[in-house]
Amino acid sequence: MQKTPPDIARVLLSRETIQARVDEIAAEIEKDYEKRENLYLVGILKGAFIFLADLTRRLRIPHIVDFMAVSSYGKTTSSSGAVRILMDLRESIEERHVLIVEDIVDTGNTLSYLHHTLNERRPASLQTCVLLKKEREQAGVPIDYLGFEIPDVWVVGYGLDFADTHRTLPYIAELKPETYRDTL
Ligand code: PRP
Hints:
- The protein is α/β, with parallel strands linked by helices and 184 residues long.
- Helices cover 24% and strands 32% of the residues.
- It is built from 4 helices and 9 strands; from the N terminus they run E-H-E-H-E-E-E-H-E-E-E-E-H.
- The longest helix is centred in the N-terminal third of the chain and has 19 residues, at 15-33.
């Protein structure tokens, strides 16, 4: 059992709560995709790696896992919201049923960009599965499977980080504001 780090303010979602919701999401996806072939899960690095690992192991329908890494510039309202691909998919998604798997939608810029970009590659279908969505104004992003809506605070754990720390916490927690105040 890991000790609670001192910069954690409170746990928002326990390990049990997350795992139960991942079970439900996997069951929904199985039901929706059981008659389609060529399910292609696209995990967005780094944040989605733990959610994706749990999700893929629960899916009892054939599917392939691939990854993309993107970087976004700035999360403030004044930023351009530009997104850049750091690592692309290994294979073509043409004629495949693509499901983007993301850990969190904050401004919505990343998912909006990914949805637009992957749609241009002519998949058979394109949907999105997001574990967390912040309660704030967002770019028009379609979310087909959502885990939880959370307050607009900095969250870590279960893949999400602060300066690449805390990703392996089994729960999702709010970071103390004084920890990140100077990074905004
Ligand atoms: C996070 C998260 C999403 C994105 C969401 O990634 O994993 O990809 O931000 O933010 P948005 O809705 O405002 O675009 P981050 O850039 O922190 O990289 P990481 O996943 O590698 O930690």
